[in-house]
Amino acid sequence: EVQLLESGGGLVQPGGSLRLSCAASGFTFNNYAMNWVRQAPGKGLEWVSVIGGSGDYTYYADSVKGRFTISRDNSKNALDLQMNSLRAEDTAVYYCAKGAYCRGGSCLFDFWGQGTLVTVSS
Amino acid sequence: DIQMTQSPSSLSASVGDRVTITCRASQGISNYLAWFQQKPGKAPKSLIYAISNLQSGAPPKFSGSGSGTEFTLTISSLQPEDFAIYYCQQYETYPPTFGQGTRLEIK
Prior knowledge:
A: 7-stranded mixed β-sheet; 4-stranded antiparallel β-sheet; 0% helix; B: mainly beta
């Protein structure tokens, strides 16, 4: 059974940093690209970032480029998102999502974690 | 970026009804179209991929169709557990983008 478990969310001040993690199990982790997708309170879904199965590529949404860094440790089946220079508009639930199929940095998502809430506020 | 537009934004229906949600892409996306269901406070759940293929574990009451830039999700014989928000998503081109969602409510 595929399981994705996010952690690391919380309250942070504008300009601050936070690191999210996603622990994966139930599939061969290094065979699949992994993504972060976020959802602001009461809003729709917004893709944030993707990393290839071997870490061979990374892509970011324009809204986070230069501020967020995605990484993975295949020895630990772990996915991370380092978020710097946080803004109020980054407030959202952040989901990690497994890429079932990807082309050119754009993935079909087949499994999602339960999400972790990031609140950016003073 | 490819814009995905869903209609309607909200829909009221009764248990037992059959409903259809439409998703339009701002340019052709071949068959790289997926549908998700999201219930309050929960993560999205994959329903359909490649326009019409049922994701493993999704009930066959969900069906998808369409081509090019216009796609539909049909839900037959609505049950209380089907009332949720539905999203379409294109994965033909970076960045992947979602529709704004369709809220399906009980009449």
